[in-house]
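Weekly modeling sync, notes
Attendees: AB, CL, MP (scribe)

Item 1: holo prediction request
CL wants a bound-state model with 2'-monophosphoadenosine-5'-diphosphate before deciding which constructs to order. AB pointed out that an apo prediction alone won't tell us much about the pocket. Agreed to run with the ligand included and paste results into these notes for async review.

Input as submitted:
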Amino acid sequence: MSDQYCVFGNPVAHSKSPLIHAAFARTTGEDLSYTARLAAVDGFSEAVFEFVAMGGRGANVTVPFKEDAFRLATRLSERAERAGAVNTLAFNDQEIFGDNTDGAGLVRDITHNLGVVLAGKRILLLGAGGATRGVIAPLLACQPASLSIANRTVAKAQALSEAFADIAAVNAGNFADFAGQSFDVLINATSASLAGESLPLPPGIFAAGSLAYDMMYGKGETPFLKLAREQGAGRCADGLGMLAEQAAEAFYVWRGVRPETAAVLADLRAALGG
Ligand code: ATR
C-alpha cells in the first residue's frame, strides 16, 4: 500500500493540497496517496491519532488547526517554534514532528519564482496575525535592509516586534505611522481581502519598482493588488506560488525530495481562470 498523507482542516473540501501533492508524487515517482480529512473544530488531536492508527505518515494542517498542531507535536523544528504554528506534521515511531513551511514557501516564491532579491530591501508586512508571525524569521534570514509590520491594532504589531527582537530590529506601527516612507516589498498578510476590504495605506508607500505580494489568491485581482497597481507598485503577485512552494517544502520534509512547482502552479492558475 502507498504511504498515506493528508491535509486536516475545517472546512477542507476546497483544499488544493491533494491535487498539488498528487502532482508532486507523479513527477517525483514517490509512491504515496494524499487525501483531505475534515476534523471537528474541537477534535483535531482525535483526528490525527485516528490517521496515525491507520498508518498515516504525515499531514498538512490548515485553518483552524495550526495552533492545535503546534501544541500536539512532541518535537518542533526551530522555524515552527518561531512561527508558533505548525502546518506540516510527520509521524515517526512514537514521535509527532511539527514543522512550518509557510515562511520558506513565501521566500522561495518571491526569490526563486519571481526572481526578486530580498537582501538589502525595505520590507513591509501588513497584518500582525498568525500569517505574519509565520514568515517573519524566514524574511529576516534573507537580510533585508529593514523589516516593518503595519497593523490596524498597533499593539499586535509591537508584540511581534518584541518577539523577534533577538534576531533583528523590526519596526511596528499602524498604517498611518508609515506615512512618508516607501518600501520595496509589501506583503499583505491580513485577512482583509477575504472580506473584500482594502487597506488604508498612506500614499507613496509603494517605491518605484516595488513588489506587492498578497498571500491571498482568488479568481481575479485581490483588493490589495488592485490598490497596489493603482498606487504604482512595479509588480504584483498573489499567494498561489506560496501555496505551491509551502507544499513542495512539506513534501521535502516527508520524502527528502524537492518537487518542481512550475507545472502544478500553471495548472492551479489555469483552474482559477487567471
Ligand atoms: P491569520 O492567522 O490569517 O493571520 P488573524 O490572526 O485573525 O489571521 O489575523 C488577521 C489579520 O488581518 C490581523 O492583523 C487583522 O488586524 P487586527 O489585528 O487589527 O485585527 C487583519 N485584518 C483583518 N481584517 C482587516 C481589515 N478590514 N483591515 C485591516 N486589517 C485587517
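Recorded for review: The chain has two domains: 3-100+241-271, 103-238.
Action items: CL to compare against the apo run; MP to circulate these notes.
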